[in-house]
Specification:
This protein has helices spanning 24-30, 36-48, 58-68, 73-83, 95-109. It is mostly helical. α2 packs across α3 (58-68). The chain starts with 23 loop residues before the first helix and ends with a helix.
Length: 111
């Protein structure tokens, strides 16, 4: 949940820099089919191609993942169906939990 800070802040107390961190778990949220190593490759490309005007977003991660690891139609449908009934964002801080949920979901649908 985003909160807008409305109170006055003393500029002397503010840091001289900020950093925003994206993780393999974030990549896994948009592409549950990728391995940890593949998620790392996506992060490396996003960092290398970073445009400060646009920033990094969920779309940036998804686009980089698609460029590196194109989806076939079946996997694309699987991901859409996997994301649909559950709140995948619950797993975004937990790569292994998300990975396990994806594996279990796939197992249940494998004849």
């Amino acid at each position: 949940m985003n909160t807008i800070i409305t109170k006055e802040v003393d500029p002397k107390e503010l840091p001289d820099q900020i950093s925003l961190v994206w993780t393999v778990s974030d990549v896994k949220c948009v592409r549950p089919d990728l391995s940890r190593e593949e998620c790392r490759e996506v992060l490396a490309v996003v960092e290398r191609m970073h445009d400060a005007t646009l920033g990094v977003t969920w779309d940036t991660l998804e686009d980089a993942a698609e460029e590196l690891f194109p989806l076939d139609d079946a996997t694309s449908r699987d991901i859409a169906e996997f994301k649909s009934p559950m709140d995948v964002w619950d797993f975004c801080d937990d790569f292994d939990g998300h990975d396990a949920a994806w594996a279990e979901w796939k197992k249940e649908r494998t004849p």
